[in-house]
Design a protein that fits this description.
Strand content: 35-45%
Structural class: mainly beta
Shape: globular
Radius of gyration: 28 Å
Number of helices: 3
Length: 554
């Protein structure tokens, strides 16, 4: 009987000990004064700090001390992170790096960040930041959530942390003050015949303002699918042409085109020499101290004619060595521009090679009355000569082209009317031609299918082979998915040559506000790349698996 009682006691010991340990363990108390929020921002290489998670603490009294913050890393691969940092931003809900609360280079499933920060009475904010490892896979994702915060002797948890968002990775290809440049704008992206990626953009050296100004066309080159980028090269720079300072010889709005047959790469840009004032008169006696300014789309900033003192100039340069070096530019203005037009200019982004070898550059301009229009410019002799089409539409500007399965060209166009029109007819203008722009017809999806806040957008045809060996193609579109602001940079896919854009094939890349321009290219059979002006860098690059976009292997 005594032995039986002993066995019963022994069998009960694990449960007894567990109860004691459980009672000794500090409990996490759910607090209504503690909330977290994750924003859908891209997490980028080449940045020391990427905002991941915002923690809001509402303190009822002055001087409470935050001693520790424990994070749950979710499915984040530890090898993808170099550092975790937490910043205290006081009452400012926006991310900044002024006050470092704590950091850790030891990445675990649960990462404890120790610190010592007194809270102000009222609302306080902390931000969790990640620094990515150099060798991160750009198609991976990272996660973060809050386990608890230690304030004084209490561990406090939040009630709204059920969902842990997956954040996409990318590369900050160009940032504010990289290479002492104030602003990088107007992205273009293409894939060369050798498989390299070429990113092009405005190098706005002194300010973020549009032409006229000291700006050139820069090129970044990647030979590993966008994981890393070579130092910036300058492809178009008019220097002090005509004896004027560089700030009166700006080049902007690059469009890059790869001849798929020869591999030659063409890069077009718009050059402005001097300043044509609001009356349409070229300014004399400009020097480094002059503050004269006008823009080719503003007032009479570009006029009829061909001369450099009459109108902005359409330049084109080429590379035959995979984008390493670039030729002296050729001026196409007199070859292609209608002399009555006030302006003829590249539309930024990338051009296309048609199935029959015709090279097509999307273009834009101002007609004989100064009204904006969109059209195309093409070459049927491998870039030796170029011809400009009739306008596809009016009161429209930046555009990009794709060749449809039928052989027709679809032009996807920014429409100025969308700046005011927020109704059901807000949407990109979509025009179709089957004769290289001699005639145009409006597509059924025009002004309704693809909303915009009046901003440049990208459209790209991705050709691929599915897992059965069949040739397929999709159209991929990107722009700020809003009628009102340049926010919510989103990729959308059409499986039927642009007739429909189902919501199940949309992916939001960046919910934040940026300048909003973008350009898409095919990296390989299974991936597309996008370069865009996002909330986290002037030039953000991201790589997307086609399987994720369209579930093509289902």
């Amino acid at each position: 009987m005594k032995l039986k009682n002993t066995n019963s006691v022994i069998k009960m010991m694990p449960l007894f000990l567990l109860t004691i340990l459980g009672s000794c363990k500090e409990q996490v108390e759910i607090s209504q004064n503690l909330t977290v929020k994750t924003f859908n921002y891209p997490v980028l290489k080449e940045k020391n700090d990427n905002p991941i998670l915002r923690i809001q603490m509402d303190s009822e009294k002055e001087g409470e001390t935050v001693k520790a913050i424990q994070l749950n890393m979710g499915n984040t691969k530890p090898e993808n992170l170099k550092n975790i940092r937490v910043y205290y931003t006081e009452r400012d809900s926006l991310f900044n790096e002024k006050v470092l609360y704590g950091a850790s280079a030891t990445i675990q499933k649960s990462s404890l960040i120790n610190g010592n920060q007194n809270l102000q009475k009222g609302t306080n904010y902390f931000w969790v930041s990640y620094e990515l490892a150099d060798n991160v896979d750009l198609t991976d994702k990272v996660y973060a959530n809050l386990d608890y915060v230690t304030i004084g002797e209490k561990k406090l948890g939040v009630s709204n942390n059920k969902e842990t968002k997956a954040l996409r990775l990318g590369v900050a290809v160009r940032q504010h003050w990289d290479d002492n440049v104030h602003t990088y704008r107007i992205p273009g992206l293409t894939t060369t015949k050798d498989g390299s990626l070429l990113a092009v953009y405005d190098v706005r050296r002194e300010s973020g303002r549009d032409l006229q100004g000291h700006m050139d066309i820069g090129v970044s080159r990647s030979i590993d699918g966008g994981n890393s980028w070579e130092p910036m090269r300058i492809a178009l720079d008019m220097g002090e042409w005509g004896g004027l300072p560089q700030k009166f010889n700006g080049v902007s709005d690059a469009n890059i085109l790869v001849d798929k047959n020869t591999g030659t790469i063409y890069l077009a840009g718009l050059w402005m020499h001097g300043v044509i004032n609001v009356e349409g008169v070229w300014q004399e006696n400009l020097n480094k101290e002059s503050d004269a300014w006008n823009h080719q789309w503003r007032t009479k900033g570009s006029q009829p004619g061909f001369g450099v003192k009459q109108t902005s100039q359409f330049l084109i340069t080429k590379s035959t060595d995979d984008g390493r070096t670039w030729s002296d530019p050729i001026n196409l203005t007199e070859m292609c521009k209608d002399p009555k037009w006030w302006l003829w200019a590249p539309a930024p982004g990338h051009g296309i090679t048609l199935k029959d070898g015709t090279l097509v550059i999307p273009t834009q301009g101002r007609d004989e009355n100064g009204l904006p229009f969109s059209n195309i410019t093409y070459s049927k002799d491998g870039g030796e000569t170029w011809k400009t089409s009739n306008p596809a539409s009016h009161n429209t500007t930046e555009c990009m082209a794709v060749e449809l399965s039928s052989g027709e060209i679809m032009l996807n166009i920014r429409d100025n009317r969308n700046g005011e029109n927020k109704s059901e007819t807000n949407g990109r203008a979509i025009m179709i031609t089957d004769d290289l722009g001699e005639t145009w017809t409006e597509h059924p999806t025009s002004h309704g299918a693809l909303i915009e806040p009046k901003c440049m957008a990208s459209i790209h045809r991705h050709d691929y082979t599915d897992n059965k060996g069949d040739s397929k193609s999709i159209l991929v579109f990107s722009n700020p998915n809003s009628k009102y602001k340049r926010i919510k940079q989103t990729i959308k896919v059409s499986l039927d040559d642009g007739k429909t854009w189902p919501k199940e094939y949309w992916i939001e890349l960046d919910e934040g506000r940026g300048a909003g321009y973008s350009c898409i290219t095919s990296i390989d059979n299974d991936h597309i790349g996008i370069l865009y002006e996002g909330s986290q860098a002037h030039m953000t690059f991201q790589k997307i698996n086609i399987n994720e976009l369209i579930k093509k292997y289902d």
